[in-house]
Design a protein that fits this description.
Elements lengths: L22 E7 L5 H14 L2 E8 L9 E9 L19 E4 L2 H9 L9 E5 L6 H4 L9 H11 L2 E5 L1 H7 L4 H12 L6 H11 L3 H17 L23 H13 L5 H14 L2 H20 L8 H14 L4 H8 L2 H11 L10 E4 L3 H7 L2 H8 L2 H11 L3 E4 L3 H11 L9 H21 L3 H9 L8 H15 L2 H4 L5 H12 L6 H11 L2
Length: 521
């Protein structure tokens, strides 16, 4: 994630914090980030040091489509004078903006709350994805570098780094880290001890809050005049010399020996994923399949194209072979690592009991898919029986995996991985996968780039239940244009446009429009 550090102050006149104008502070935070607590701390530390302070709030929309804005005005008390304080921030007149998440910092710039002649921006650079980012079938994540670039010139001074991670490492929440950055910034002319005393006076979670506060305080003071930059991505070494698992190490040796270096990272990730999904033998079959595809790649000039066909096959064949079925879902829900992660996320102590409630809605299609192929087909071929059974199973359930009954039930389902390759779902996934790869192999001889795009279309299929069915439908509709595109020089570009259109909306309206355009070519 982008890591932004403090920028130098621009040489402009700072607000007169001791004059007649109150210090205006806007806090933008979402539910669970402690925005209200932070606002209360700021008011409390101001009042304890002889200032008059007032805070108001305007709640954001639920389900993470907007943050709550806490607005604070504070001014040194003057005997015989009662200040008049505003209830809402005015664009261009805010001295300090505190954003509990990177995109909220960007929104504060768009709202005009951050200005280069006045505002100090204090922000955490971590991301909490908005609903609009999550709901897109493709990658709807906003670009953090745009926000980084905007805040670099929009604010008089910027103090920003990953305060969320820092707070979590110290057992607290981001508000405590933000308070530490406020204290170190000097926007409130009070000693550090005054801020710490305010935290102690709260009486709850004092020690973790103080740890996060002090860590952020020191982090802010460490680099007071660094340029606003993004942290370069870490390099990833995809092929360790030894993992400690002989069968996985044998797969790694085969990857090194039989495949081009461009594909190593994805092949290693795919082998690990499929070993976890099924077993090392299944991962070995994956490498067998990629080896056959790589041979076709070499035969049609793949080396001159950085083996793009092999690289994309390494990625998407692994995805296709590790499909989400009922067995996989049950396996993930009963893993000890998942229980440990949940306990860590909720901050449970060693002597506390944590129950997790899963919301599950199985359909008869999933039940048949988990049965041996002949059994599943027998039920599906009898519509009346299928409908009666569907009425029994097709309803929402709240499954408490911390209870013996439901844990044992899900554990039993997860144990079905031993027969997974005999199930109806596996047979259908395998048939669909081989048909997809056959189309790519048939195309590579006449249009290499289009063959690569056929492989990329696999990203349209994901999840299970209704999500999986919609993905299959979009995949098949996109590839229905293949006969019209195979002989065209721009066939790959058009297939890419179809895939991108399929990712724009859930129903596939944009894809239908793109297909009509292709039909007129």
């Amino acid at each position: 994630m982008t890591d932004i550090v403090t920028t130098a102050d621009r040489r402009v006149k700072a607000p007169d914090l001791a004059g007649d104008k109150p210090l205006a502070i806007a806090v933008l935070a979402m539910g669970g980030q402690g925005g209200g607590v932070l606002a209360d701390w700021i008011v409390a530390v101001a009042e304890e040091n002889g200032w008059v302070a007032q805070s108001t709030s305007v709640p954001g929309v639920a389900q993470r489509t907007g943050a709550t804005i806490y607005y604070i005005e504070a001014i040194p008390a003057r005997e015989g004078h009662e200040p008049v304080l505003s209830l809402m921030p005015t664009p261009g007149d805010v001295d300090v903006v505190i954003a509990a998440e990177l995109m909220e910092a960007g929104r504060s710039v768009l709202r005009g709350l951050v200005t280069p002649d006045r505002t100090i921006l204090i922000a955490s650079t971590h991301r909490s994805f908005a609903v609009i980012e999550k709901e897109k079938p493709g990658d709807g994540i906003g670009d953090p570098t745009v926000v980084a670039a905007a805040t670099d010139f929009a604010a008089r001074r910027t103090i920003a780094f990953d305060m969320e991670t820092l707070a979590v490492k110290n057992g607290s929440v981001v508000s405590a880290a933000l308070f530490g950055a406020v204290a170190a910034s000097g926007v409130l002319p009070f000693p550090k001890e005054a801020f710490e005393a305010t935290i102690r006076s709260g009486g709850k979670g004092v020690e973790p809050s103080l740890k996060a506060f002090n860590a952020a305080y020191e982090r802010t003071r460490e680099r007071p005049k660094d340029k606003l930059t993004a942290t370069p991505p870490k390099r990833f070494d995809p092929l360790p010399e030894a993992s400690g698992h002989p069968r996985l190490d044998a797969l790694v040796r085969r990857i090194r020996q039989d495949f081009p270096a461009e594909a190593w990272p994805l092949l290693y990730a795919g082998a690990k994923k499929l070993t976890d999904f099924q077993d090392p033998a299944y991962a070995g079959e994956y490498l067998d399949r990629i080896a056959a595809l790589h041979a076709r790649d070499r035969a049609h000039g793949g080396a001159a194209r950085d083996h793009a066909f092999t690289v994309q096959a390494a990625k998407y064949v692994a995805v296709a072979m590790a499909y989400d079925d009922v067995i996989r879902v049950a396996d993930l829900k009963v893993r000890a690592s998942r229980f440990a992660r949940v306990r860590k996320e909720v901050g449970a102590k060693a002597d506390q009991i944590v129950y997790t409630t899963e919301y599950m809605h199985p359909r008869m299609e999933e039940i048949c898919g988990t049965l041996p192929k002949a059994w599943g087909e027998w039920i599906e071929n009898r519509p009346a029986l299928f409908a009666r059974l569907d009425r029994l199973v097709n309803r929402g359930r709240r499954v408490r995996t911390g209870t013996l009954f439901w844990f044992a039930a899900l554990y039993g389902v997860s144990a079905l991985r031993s027969i997974r390759r005999k199930t109806l779902r596996h047979a259908r996934e395998e048939a669909h996968r081989e048909a997809w790869l056959a189309r790519a192999v048939d195309t590579i001889a006449v249009n290499y780039d289009l063959a690569v795009e056929i492989l990329n279309c696999r990203r349209l299929i994901k999840g299970y239940s209704d999500t999986h069915a919609r993905g299959y439908s979009k995949f098949d509709r996109a590839l229905s244009a293949l006969p019209a595109l195979t002989g065209r020089e721009d066939g790959a570009a058009w297939m890419r446009r179809l895939r991108q259109a399929a990712l724009l909306d859930e129903e596939g309206v944009a894809l239908d429009g793109a297909l009509k355009t292709v039909a007129t070519l």
